[in-house]
Amino acid sequence: MESLTNRKKVLESKPLNFLERAYLPAIAQGLAITMKHFFKKPVTISYPEEKREYSENFRGLHSLKRDENGKERCTACGLCALSCPAEAITMIAAERQKGEEHLYREEKYAAVYEINMLRCIFCGLCEEACPKEAIYLDGPHVESDYLRKDFIYGKDKLVEAPLNQ
Amino acid sequence: MGLADIVIKLVLIVIIFLISLVIAMYSTYAERKIAAFFQDRIGPNRAGPWGILQPLADGGKMFLKEEIIPTNASPFLFIAGPSLAILTACIGSAVIPWGQTVTMGGHTFDLQVTDINVGILYIFGVVSLGVYGVMIGGWASNNKYSLLGAIRAASQNISYEISMGLSIIALLMVTGTLSLKEIAAMQHGWHWNVLYQPVGFILFIVCAFAETNRTPFDLPECETELVGGYHTEYSSMKLGFYLFAEYINMFISSAVMATLYWGGYNYPGMDWVLAHTGPTIGPLIGTAVLFAKIFLFIFFFMWVRWTIPRFRYDQLMDLGWKVLIPLAIANIIVTGLWITFF
């Protein structure tokens, strides 16, 4: 029957001719292809010595940011923890005392801030939820470790290094 | 035969044995490295510079692995299998002429362990014994995959030995001798046998692939169907022996091919080099050339391995019985006619 679209392509399978059945020309062709690859540059990246560059929008380890005066931006509002679909973030808020103004920008701050890196799915929703621009997923990937408890990162690992140091 | 001759022969035997083992060791490294290059990778590069200590690390690992003999295996035959495999692999090198006559310190000797006048038949005998290592090991494992692998190996080797023998008969008609030393000497000055027997050489190399159980004929150890084939139950250095035997076989069959078809230790401009370097260094250059040819063949073995997929078993048998044997017989007839009329 005539096809309506006229796009049908009839494939014919011809019996192999003598050279094709002899198999040796095909082998020679294959050998030529592999030989071409023999002289190609390897695509391997020797990992610990060489590192592949992260893409620009790579979402890696979280970092808790400081403002231009070196004060922690986080105000422990808990929106990041609320937005987190993996329930990876937890924190304990504390009130800023007198004399700590140079440490914390707002009157409330996170005394404890923990992210469980085994739960985190690096979706970036905490980053989007943060009203203070305090958390960004701009680090490298998470290092391997031996114990589960060592994957719960506290403020010691998350907060950016202080300015002028 | 004086004492000096015996000592020389013993030294030669030890040297050839050591060379076989070292080449087998480094073939494993070369295989991995070449495979990597063919697949745009780097390959082993951690143990030593460029990974050249990798074979030592692998060997050490093999020795440290637990040695398991299955409960229902036949212990004597289980150990005899790999021993036989590596024994037959090693004794094949005895008749190969590694070079011309060397004069060193007043002594004149051949770089050949023994020049028996039926050298080719000896090699055939050794090759056909090689099947027993695989068969006995596979049978003694008391494992269905091992047994299937062993059966495949046996039937494959026996089938391809026929066409290998037939391809050699055509060569013997051209050379008129069975002694490998004479065949090598005869090819002096571009009278390489591959020029007279191109079809015979192709038949021989295809059969050599089958005899050494290399891809595309590596059905005895076909992982997808048979787990590990005949060495499924083997571990530790007994497995190492099987793997070693495969690489030594590859080395020996490369040496046989280079000797029978590609001029052995002969190379163009040989007389000139020989006249200028003297009777000690000159023949050794020929030996180096022979080894270069052998390494090219080993490279070819690996090159083919990383190019062609494995045959199906019926295709393998089809090729052996319906293509190679008639072709070998036709080759004999054509060679006979050629000798008669020209």
Write the layout of secondary structure elements.
The complex is a heterodimer of chains A (165) and B (342).
Chain A: H1 18-22, H2 24-38, E1 63-64, H3 79-83, E2 89-95, E3 108-116, H4 125-129, E4 135-136, E5 152-153, H5 155-158
Antiparallel strand pairs in A: 1-4, 2-3, 3-5
Chain B: H1 3-38, H2 54-64, H3 75-91, E1 99-104, E2 107-111, H4 119-140, H5 144-175, H6 180-186, H7 193-196, H8 198-211, H9 223-226, H10 236-260, H11 270-305, H12 313-341
Antiparallel strand pairs in B: 1-2
The end-to-end distance of chain B, rounded to whole angstroms, is 43 Å
Measured distance between first and last alpha carbons of chain A? 81 Å
For the record, what CATH class of the domain at 63-158 in chain A applies? Alpha Beta
Helix content of chain B: 55-70%
Low-pLDDT residue intervals, each spanning 5 or more residues of chain B: none
Q: From the alpha carbons, calculate the radius of gyration of chain B and give it in angstroms.
A: 21 Å
- What is the structural class of chain B? mainly alpha
Number of domains of chain B: 1
- Write the H/E string of chain A, N to C: HHEHEEHEEH
β-sheet strand percentage of chain B: under 5%
Q: What is the CATH architecture assignment of the domain at 63-158 in chain A?
A: 2-Layer Sandwich
Q: Report the count of strand segments of chain B.
A: 2
Q: Output the number of helix runs of chain A.
A: 5
Q: Please give the number of β-strands of chain A.
A: 5
> Class by helix and strand content of chain A?
alpha+beta
Strands side by side in the biggest sheet of chain B: 1-2
Query: What does the average pLDDT of chain A come to?
Result: 87
